[in-house]
Design goal:
Blueprint: E1 2-8, E2 22-30, E3 33-40, H1 42-57, H2 72-78, H3 80-102, E4 126-133, E5 147-152, H4 157-169, E6 173-177, E7 186-195, E8 198-209, E9 213-216, E10 219-222, H5 224-228, E11 236-242, E12 256-270, H6 276-281, H7 287-318, H8 328-348, H9 353-365, H10 367-388, H11 394-408, H12 412-422, H13 424-442, E13 446-451, E14 460-462, H14 476-479
Parallel strand pairs: 5-13, 9-14
Antiparallel strand pairs: 1-2, 2-3, 3-4, 6-12, 7-8, 7-12, 9-10, 11-12
């Protein structure tokens, strides 16, 4: 679809403010991208040039002339480079601001303009073009009175025992042993990855827990504990791994690499004794209070699971008609934001560091698919929030930060400062606004109670790097200090 705006001469809200005579042509070049061609008239350029020369005349110092008395022709000749740069900057800024005011363009990224290649002509009109990624244009679905299955059921003893075991493992002491490695142990090893006979990455001194699945940020190795079973210091094991089809390294998608694990140390995990000292370390006065804290964490995870299941059904229904495609470049840019939001929710729900790492690896492995869907959900929920006047208030943010403080024992001030520094405070604000939009939809939904699925036991280990070596480092430290550092 293409629209020619022709001569855009709009009246300013301030009648004394001059408006430029712009010729603008806007064309769609994708679901979320527009091509914009702008022509600035010679008269507008002359007016800006006059203003620039007037400003320069008031401060330019030229031998033989008093300030303010330098001839215009001499100013243009002597300060040609400075004047040209100033004029270009002012022409671009003024025209882009007017474009923003007069045209319905909702950019989600900075316009791609090669400023260095542009030159303002000494005479005649000035023409420039650029592409900008924008929000997709779509009609909202009917989101009133949708039907939702809602899971319910009490916390089970098996769920509590599994969580308690996982929690205590995060505080386990690693004790070096001469015994052969077995499932549940930990190893320290060096890893070399090869593809077509060439080493593509080497990492050293990796501490890996022997679990049925080992997650890299761009691949999964199943049966890891069985592969390493019986290994001792000095032994090596090899495994074939397929790179995720969502890897940012396009040429490696679906390729098989060989991982060689060279064991340098085998460790048993010694679970801590739950005594008074251990309880006090965790802010509990007794084992009974610690037990209550752990049960509360399991309950929060159950609530998180229920919220995610409900949210998924809502989002599936309201995005069912969102069949517009999103460019991979846009999806790549937004991958980190989508990941940050889920990590935030898991941190708020009291998941352990190891559980969050596993989820982070899973998301990174399927980054294109998950982020593309997350972006569609964001656009739909954002439009619903705008339509219904839903906003994230400061008190909403303060409440979430306070909850995170209660969960990990860190002062609110430190959490806020870290999140502001990392840029995650904006993610939190967007997350809360979207959550309120989902809650708004749920107010009119009808529910059918179904049996809750048990909270799954963690049978996965994760590392914080990708085999292909080009993905971002983990985001966990931006949000939470739960658990022990690696």
């Amino acid at each position: 679809m293409s629209s020619d705006a022709g001569q855009a001469v709009a009246e300013s809200a301030d009648e004394n403010e001059p408006r430029m005579s712009l010729q603008v042509k806007i064309s769609d070049v994708g679901a979320c991208k527009k091509h914009v061609a702008v022509t600035v008239s010679e008269a507008d350029i002359s007016a800006i040039r006059d203003d620039a020369l007037s400003d320069l005349s008031e401060k330019a110092q030229v031998p033989g002339f008093r300030v303010g008395k330098v001839p215009r022709a001499l100013l243009e000749k002597r300060f040609k480079t400075e004047i040209s740069g100033d004029i270009k900057q002012k022409v671009l800024l003024a025209s882009l601001e007017q474009l923003s005011d007069e045209y319905q363009i909702e950019p989600i990224s900075e316009p791609k303009i090669d400023v260095d290649s542009l030159d303002i002509p000494d005479s005649g009109d000035f023409h420039y073009e650029f592409e900008v990624e924008v929000r997709p244009d779509f009609d909202l679905p009917d989101y009133a009175g949708i039907k939702i299955n809602r899971s319910s059921g009490d916390q089970t003893a098996e769920e509590y025992d599994a969580y308690k075991e996982q929690f205590l493992l995060s505080y386990a002491e690693r004790v070096t042993t001469d015994d052969a490695a077995a499932s549940g142990d930990s190893i320290i090893c060096n890893i070399a990855f090869t593809h077509d006979g060439k080493v593509i990455r080497e990492v050293s001194s990796q501490n890996l827990d022997l679990k049925p699945q080992l997650n890299f940020q761009d691949a999964v190795l199943d049966g890891f504990d069985a592969i390493m079973a019986g290994a001792k210091a000095g032994d090596s094991r090899e495994a074939s791994i397929m790179i995720s089809l969502q890897s940012p390294v396009v040429e490696m998608r679906g390729e098989k690499v060989t991982a060689a694990f060279s064991v340098t140390e085998v460790q048993h995990l010694r679970i801590p004794v739950i005594d008074k000292e251990f309880c006090e370390r965790l802010g509990a006065s007794s084992e009974e209070e610690l037990d209550g804290m752990l049960r509360s964490s399991v309950s929060r995870q159950m609530e998180y699971q229920q919220r995610q299941e409900t949210r998924r059904q809502v989002l599936d229904k309201i995005t069912a008609s969102a069949d517009w495609d999103l460019p991979e470049s846009l999806v790549r840019q937004q991958t980190e934001n989508a990941l940050r939001r889920e990590i935030l929710e898991m941190s708020q729900a009291g998941f352990t560091r190891e559980q969050i790492m596993v989820r982070e690896s899973q998301i990174r492995q399927d980054a294109l698919v998950t982020t593309r869907q997350a972006l569609k959900e964001h656009f739909v929920l954002d439009k619903i929030a705008t339509k219904e006047g839903i906003e994230c208030e400061q008190m909403d943010i303060d409440r979430e930060l306070l909850m995170m403080s209660f969960q990990n024992g860190e002062p609110v001030r430190r959490i806020r400062a870290r999140m502001v520094k990392s840029g995650m405070i904006e993610n939190l604000e967007a997350q809360l606004r979207e959550r309120k939009a989902v809650d708004f939809i749920l107010q009119t939904a009808t529910f059918e109670e179904v049996t809750r699925k048990p909270v799954e036991k963690n049978e996965q280990a994760s590392v914080r790097f990708s085999i292909c070596g080009s993905m971002s480092s983990s985001l966990i430290d931006d949000t939470s200090d739960n658990g022990e550092s690696e």
